[in-house]
Amino acid sequence: MNDYKYIRWFEDLGSEEVDIVGGKNASLGEMISALREESILVPAGFATTSEAYHDYIRENDIKDKLSEKLGKLKKDMSNLGKIGKSIRRLFLKGEFSDEASGEIRSAYAELSRRNDREEVGVAVRSSATAEDLPDASFAGQQETFLNISGEDDVLDACKRCYASLFTNRAISYRIERGFDHLDVALSIGIQKMVRADKAGSGVMFSIDTESGFEKVVVIDAAWGLGENVVQGAVNPDEYQVFKPLLNKDNFKPIIDKTLGDKSKKMVYARNGSVNTRNVDTSKKERNSYVLNDDEIIRLARWAVKIEDHYGRPMDMEWAKDGQDNELYIVQARPETVQSQKEGLSIKSFELKEEGEKILSGLSIGEAIASGKAQIIKDANDIDDFNNGSILVTGMTDPDWVPIMKKSAGIVTDYGGRTSHAAIVSRELGIPAIVGTAEATEAIADGQEITIDCTSSDEGIVYDGSLDFEESEMDLKKVPETKTEIKMNIASPGAAFRWWRLPARGIGLARMEFIINNSIKIHPRALLEYDNLEDKQVKKSIRRLTRGYANKEDYFIINLSQGIARIAASQHPYQVLVRMSDFKSNEYADLIGGGPFEPSEENPMLGFRGASRYYNDKFRGAFSLECRAIRKVRDELGLSNVAIMIPFCRTLAEADRILEILAENDLERGRNGLQVYVMCEIPSNVILGREFAQRFDGFSIGTNDLTQLVLGIDRDSEILSGLFDERNEAVKRMISDLIVKAHEENCEVGICGQAPSDHPDFAEFLVRSGIDSISLNPDRVLDVIHKVAKVEAEMGTDKQKIKQQPGATVES
Description:
Blueprint: E1 7-9, H1 18-34, E2 45-48, H2 50-59, H3 63-73, H4 80-93, H5 98-114, E3 122-128, E4 144-148, H6 151-164, H7 168-177, E5 186-192, E6 200-205, E7 216-223, H8 227-231, E8 237-242, E9 254-258, E10 264-268, E11 276-280, H9 283-286, H10 293-310, E12 314-320, E13 327-334, E14 345-351, E15 357-364, E16 368-375, E17 390-393, H11 401-404, E18 409-412, H12 420-428, E19 432-434, H13 439-442, E20 448-452, E21 458-463, E22 468-474, E23 484-489, H14 492-495, E24 506-510, H15 511-519, H16 523-527, H17 535-544, H18 551-570, E25 575-578, H19 584-588, H20 610-613, H21 619-635, E26 641-645, H22 651-663, E27 675-679, H23 682-686, H24 688-692, E28 697-700, H25 702-710, H26 728-743, E29 747-750, H27 754-757, H28 759-767, E30 772-775, H29 780-793
Parallel strand pairs: 16-17, 17-18, 18-19, 23-24, 23-30, 24-25, 25-26, 26-27, 27-28, 28-29, 29-30
Antiparallel strand pairs: 1-2, 2-5, 3-4, 3-5, 6-7, 6-12, 7-8, 8-9, 10-11, 12-13, 14-22, 15-19, 15-21, 16-20, 20-21
């Protein structure tokens, strides 16, 4: 085998041989040879060399014609389509030399023998020598041909790979990046097919593709061969795994699982000239996850090992063989978008007005854009696209890139976070919403719309051109502070967005936000589903809970994963999760909630907070919350989660809550569990020492505390001028609490809105000796500078100051 001139077996290749076999094939060889001991499975195969490509061009007299045709593009890119097609025709009409074709036939026959097949099925993949570099992705530009068998068909697929080096997208991308067309060669990988047509496949990143959060693996999965995921032709499952806990104490740190509809799958074609075809998936397949938890964990561990080996975030393709039930890595390349960002600043976008929601999908790009929607369903019509419009289409492929570059944003019917539309949108720095299922039907051509991608989870399309604000936060010089600065986070999707901010944990994670937005169903409606009388409510619950073993699991799994994503974003710093604090009217608005909630004249002061947790009307529902917390800490491994009890009115109530928690295996102190209490009622301050003896800390809620100290309904428009957290009575309450708590060695933080809104209030807190201030993310940097200045004026001992993580210290 070593006598081959044009062929190299994967196991003989390394990552340094990109100039010989291209980035894709060099990476496959590197994994086979270097990661074999890590039990990472890569299908066997061989590659043609760049010399084979150059000889093909010489022997078929292509070079001069190629130079002539490409030269015309320097003057006029409008002929790109016509010239690209004529170049591809040159390659397709060519023939391999006897020596080259003989070696390809011989190697294919050997690969078949190694797999005990007369003619083994293979994937024929393009691998350019300028491809998969750390700063250039060339995503989706060259072709891959699946389910190829027989020597003649392999040779034909090789010629089509050569031709694909000159797709319109590849030509224009090389021009933009300054690559000389004639300096780029193409290697071809001939790799044993993984029978994913009988199982599933997908894409995996060792970094969050939206925020650049480095501690998570993101996996997309669909049934059948992987082209549908790459092309964005289906809405796949998505799994997220927290990397730091992957190999600790048998945890399974799967912090998010989203079920995609996976409406079709690519399988082998049985007859005719095509080798693959798409078929509809069954109802069972649409309602089932492609991978089980053990398989998700195995792939994530492989991703970490591959990332560690290459020393950079990686973009990988995987497949599961339905015959041997093994998982395989079929491609690996550097991630080229998030890993290239310097991270010295954070851009922030905020909608300044409300709008009517049209539809939603997966959020790409963490930005906002508005403009006229332009619906284009066929690539043949892309010349009609207007600069600055928002492209609305079913899905995109490399032929769409010229208009994607001219668009203000993109909305698609199909696709996941690893689809072509998502990848190219990130490269271009424009927001996109993918996988909406109905964008081309729900949005009218020419309609003014706004797309909001500021949540890492859900992207929303609004009717009309809404006003928004763009700002930039500088992370280059952040001073040290003794006072801990934390964040308030409600949405799990927003947590990763702010991971670069120099905060030390989360002082308020609102459980009710996750229940309202992800679960949507009243917990008692899940527990007592069989007794519900409303048939429409039962239908809605059945639809939302499909794919879960029981209704309780739906609540526990969704709540635990929402909490886990927030906790992962700040691990190992403390994340304070407030147990549910819905008021009765808010609980009644959840699906199925009406029959279980009382009608109260003043829900703000009614059946809320701690009073619910031990009451027979809600105790069963509270146990679901406790089970979710236990899952986060004990199964997923995020022991940095602490819990916080809201609206705890009396000491007797505090004792009862601690008993209930212990009954639910959440005993304070067990496995380091900390239990905090909200300070939002005057009794919490008056009996501050006694409360401090029962809890690990206080978190001050300034809105409710101000309401009850001043006797003002915080929602009253008439009295809004009197509602001020900076009132002397409120400030004295806070100062009093800090003194009493510290006498009992109990921490005091604040998670209320006041320090985010009022810099002078933050100063008051620091001078009063507060231990931590939790802020809205967009206020973190401003308040850090303010706190540092106040501490310097107070003559703070610099030896005791704690540096904010991830920051450059200001001299």
